[in-house]
């Protein structure tokens, strides 16, 4: 049973996808962090990089957007796009955001525009018919492609979405007409406005939910806000009336996410360690370039041979790893260090399982294979900052490293600082060192400080100052009155 839970407040909208009481998907959107992906802008070229076939475009965002002419698309798709005239500084052109600003990088844009609908995506600048890989029936694929070729506007392209399966030609034609009208309005707005300016804003999270995720596979949609439920109901009545009965409003006093145990499961999202039911565990580490996941047997000792025990843990870990990748919205390069397996058949079975699990992902995920060192390589399309970046900031104390300076190191540094001062100007009444109480407690019985005080015959007084972060300190000279 698959259920979508929607919690709506003025501050944020949260969506949880639950399958058999287990959280398998989570999305969050806040007004202050609304995503740019899908928005179309009238942009102005600020800089051109001929050697990289790229340019930086001002779209009105605080950072210029990066435009790569090739966009990394497959050659057969690129042939369908018209050749771009030479881009030059000051040129105004419509661009669409395909990747949010992440870290120090600005958003990434493309000139190959697409306007999504429920059943199809209109590509106004490409002559190309594409289809969702989730539609597997060959007869249905042929039927849908024939319809798409018939209703596709001249000089444009269409991508057939998963929701289109079973839809009639009339439904296709009506949606194409609506999207074509929308495209005409975008073009008209560009002529009226200057650059940079917003031409088209993608729908908010609630509407995208209905457009992109609500299919016949969803058994229930529960929303805790009556107004939001009404918006969704109106939209479903138009695009998928057969699914309206699956929609309901949550009216209980207890918080929706708490009632369904979602809050407890969400606590795992930023946990470095995730425990497995068998007693094994996963460890997640993130770098600028990639994410590394380590699989450990932990307390699991198995019931059979070592080879079977290792394989059982790896299979269990594979399910949890893909679930965590979806929940945390991890993108880019992912390296998984499974426990070493000797049998090639077991390795192949593990890879096949990962590929089957990745098929449920709405983002493009590719299980590359096993390296010579026995590491599994996975790539996943990255369009925005991951969930951890939305929910958390780096610790101001450790800078996000998860570590603070040891007590011994602090003691050594205090001695070095005082020694430098003493070499130039002796403090007859000694020094006062202010520290956070955590640091102070760890230094009270420090042998290093005691030996230093005896060596220089100095009085050093430790004083608590809790507005200092652990690991930081202030040294001042004491006066006769202290």
Helix content: 25-40%
Described by strand count, sense and barrel closure, the largest sheet is: 6 strands, mixed
The geometry reads as globular
pLDDT averaged residue by residue: 87
What structural category do the secondary elements indicate?
alpha+beta
Give start-end ranges of low-pLDDT stretches.
Answer: 80-84
Radius of gyration: 29 Å
Query: What's the total helix number?
Result: 13
With strands numbered from the N-terminus, the spatial order across the biggest sheet is 16-17-18-19-21-20
- What is the correct CATH architecture of the largest domain? Beta Barrel
- The CATH topology annotation of the largest domain reads as OB fold (Dihydrolipoamide Acetyltransferase, E2P)
Count of folded domains: 4
Number of strands: 24
Strand percent estimate: 25-35%
Distance between the termini: 72 Å
Q: What is the CATH H-level superfamily of the largest domain?
A: Nucleic acid-binding proteins
CATH class placement of the largest domain: Mainly Beta
Give a concise summary.
This protein is α+β, with helices and mostly antiparallel strands. Helix content is about 30%, strand content about 25%.
């Amino acid at each position: 049973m698959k259920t979508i839970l929607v919690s709506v407040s003025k501050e944020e909208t949260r969506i949880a996808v639950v399958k058999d009481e287990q959280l398998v998907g989570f999305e969050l959107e806040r007004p202050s962090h609304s995503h740019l992906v899908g928005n179309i802008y009238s942009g102005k070229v600020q800089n051109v990089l001929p050697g990289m076939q790229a340019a930086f475009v001002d779209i009105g965002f605080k950072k210029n957007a990066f435009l790569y002419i090739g966009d990394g698309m497959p050659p057969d798709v690129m042939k369908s796009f018209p050749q771009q005239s030479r881009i030059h500084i000051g040129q105004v052109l419509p661009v669409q955001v395909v990747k949010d600003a992440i870290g120090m990088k600005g958003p990434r844009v493309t000139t190959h525009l697409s306007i999504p609908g429920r059943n199809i995506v209109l590509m106004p600048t490409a002559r190309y018919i594409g289809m969702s890989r989730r539609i597997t029936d060959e007869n249905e694929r042929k039927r849908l492609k024939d319809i798409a070729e018939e209703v596709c506007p001249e000089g444009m392209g269409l991508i057939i979405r998963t929701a289109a399966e079973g839809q009639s030609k009339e439904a296709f034609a009506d949606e194409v007409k609506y999207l074509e009208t929308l495209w005409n309005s975008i073009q008209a707005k560009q002529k009226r406005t200057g650059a940079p300016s917003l031409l088209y804003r993608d729908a908010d999270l609630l509407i995208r939910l209905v457009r992109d995720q609500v299919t016949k596979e969803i058994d229930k949609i529960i929303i805790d806000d009556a107004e939001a439920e009404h918006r969704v109901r109106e939209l479903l009545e138009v695009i998928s009336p057969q699914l309206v009965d699956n929609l309901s409003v949550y009216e209980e006093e207890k918080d929706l996410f708490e009632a369904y145990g979602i809050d407890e499961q969400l606590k795992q999202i930023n946990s470095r360690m995730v425990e497995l039911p068998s007693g094994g565990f996963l460890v997640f580490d993130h770098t600028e370039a990639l994410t590394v996941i380590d699989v450990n047997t932990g307390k699991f000792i198995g019931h059979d041979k070592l080879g079977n025990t290792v394989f059982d843990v790896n299979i269990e870990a594979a399910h949890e790893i893909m679930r965590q990748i979806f929940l945390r919205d991890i993108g880019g390069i992912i390296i998984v260090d499974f426990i070493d397996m000797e049998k090639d058949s077991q390795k192949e079975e593990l890879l096949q399982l990962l590929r089957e699990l990745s098929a449920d992902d709405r983002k493009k995920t590719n299980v590359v294979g096993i390296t010579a060192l026995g590491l599994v390589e996975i790539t996943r399309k990255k369009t925005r900052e991951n969930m951890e970046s939305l929910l958390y900031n780096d610790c101001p104390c450790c800078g996000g490293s998860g570590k603070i300076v040891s007590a011994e190191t602090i003691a050594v540094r205090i001695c070095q600082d005082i020694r430098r001062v003493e070499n130039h100007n002796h403090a007859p009444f000694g020094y006062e060192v202010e520290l956070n109480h955590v640091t102070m407690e760890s230094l009270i019985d420090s042998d290093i400080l005691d030996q230093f005080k005896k060596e220089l015959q100095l009085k050093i007084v430790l004083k608590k100052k809790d507005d200092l972060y652990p690991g930081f300190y202030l040294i001042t000279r004491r006066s006769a009155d202290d």
